[in-house]
Amino acid sequence: MKESMIEKTLTSGRKLYIRKLSRPDIRFCRDLMKNRVYPDKSILVIDAAKSNDAWLQRGIGGLDDWKAKNGELAPDEILCSLTELEEVEVLELVKGSQHINPSKPSSSD
Questions:
Q1: Which domain holds residue 9?
Q2: Domain count along the chain
């Protein structure tokens, strides 16, 4: 079975293929990051970097000439090749492309 991919071009010109993640993969990535709210209303975000890495590893199905084979995760060389700006852009694209319960389009009646 061929993986479902979305092709995007980053603002830097690099070609990105975004993998459509399974429901368990989406939940895994979401559940890694925790927020702790204190009585004074301050918030501590825990494991944001770990969560972001999981989104990138699982969500990148291809970058430039590299393509994932048989569902492999994006290797460190691919993640490290991203600039900080590209990483933020890829993270937004990957997260924005994942839907556990996509809503049905409303009718135009």
A1: 5-83
A2: 1
